[in-house]
Amino acid sequence: MNNVGYRKHSIFGAEISLICPGAPNVILSPRETWRDDLAFYKQANELTLMFQINFEKFKDKSSDDIMQGSPHPNNKYLN
Question: CA 3, 16, 28, 75 torsion: positive or negative?
Fold first, then answer.
């Protein structure tokens, strides 16, 4: 989309549009769709760690750029 702002997701690194015509802004922020921030970040961290474990089997076939694009847990919410 042109002429809209983006922000980078703190865990997954994806660039997320700040606005999308015709869509409620709340759905543009995964965290805002949860009532409990702690529960969201715990689940997001769990998904991140699962991704990292799974991706280990592909690291020898992937470039550094790909590996650097992996999600990173939010340390504030690690168990």
Answer: negative
Paired tokens of 22 = 């015709």
Backbone phi and psi for residue 49, each to the nearest 5 degrees, phi listed first: -65, -35
Q: What is the structure's pLDDT at 79?
A: 62
Q: What DSSP assignment string belongs to 39-79?
A: HHHHHHHHHHHHHHHHHGGGGGGS-HHHHHTS----GGG--
Helix (H) / strand (E) element for 38: namely: helix 37-55
On whether the CB atoms of residues 45 and 53 are closer than 8 A, the answer is no
As given in the structure block, the two tokens for residue 3 are 């002429």
* pLDDT for the residue 40: 92
Question: pTM value?
Answer: 0.74
